[in-house]
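quick one, 316 residues, struct below
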Amino acid sequence: MISVAIAAYNGERFILEQLESIRCQTVPVDEVIIGDDCSTDQTVEICRSFIAENNLTGWRVQLHDENRGYCYNFYDAIEECQGDVIFLADQDDVWHPDKVEKMMACLAEHPDLAVLSSRYGVIDAESNPIPDSGVTYLGTVYDDSLEMTTTESMIGCSYIRGFSLCFRKKLKEVLRPIDLQSLLSHDWLISILGTLQGGTGILNTVLAEYRYHGDNVTLSSMSRKTRVRRLEKRKKGLRESIEGHQYVAGLVALPPLQKEFESFIAFEKKRLRFLETGNLFRWIALFFKMSQYNRYYKGNGIRVWLGDLSYALKRE
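---
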């Protein structure tokens, strides 16, 4: 059984095209759970009409009583999914017709794989391709090969987008709902847990189009440039990151890998203490941790270090 979990919120402009791309897969999905996070537009009506018009008996809309944010929206939809494999979908992207077929074939070929992502293109609001968008983070290999990730590469870093991945239902057993909206996200948690549960891989085939239109909830929240506009939000992001990494570290069996997590958590706590106190001596001391800044933030260490200072100086 194949399930799809969709997180929706005020998505009336694009969601119909996404639903149609899922319906028209060469290998049909069995179930689609659309979690609506208290939309104030016509999103729910559009989804319900689409389901009724196409007689999609395995599709349904799940309404929230209050706005819970996109992470919990996904967690709730995932919890309702009954499939052996669960795909994640944003409300404004477009799947290629063979996305499910190719990803399911890859999972069949690699039965131990827990999480599988794919490469993707980027389009604008009018569905025009955006070359060299800078938001894919996955390189430029498109040879249908399977590229494995490592747990270490995901410590402190989220580079697999949720809409591009699917995972086996066994992952639900360790997928603890953790709010990671300010820094990382549910897709980071799923991807890094996958590395501990059999492997997380990237299929080097473009199987979807990521729609970049400036209003994307996950992109605006995840972008290193825009995710923390205020000091309190930056501190919140660090607290979430520490909580998430502490949870994953508790599942790690190998002592060397545990030390990797402990080192990162200690580093994040030092950053948090500086932001909480504004003590410049703590910030200067962090300069001597620049190797960790660069490692965890993929070569952008000096920017993050200077960013910590700029936010700390804007104390409210």
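The first helix runs from residue 15 to 23.
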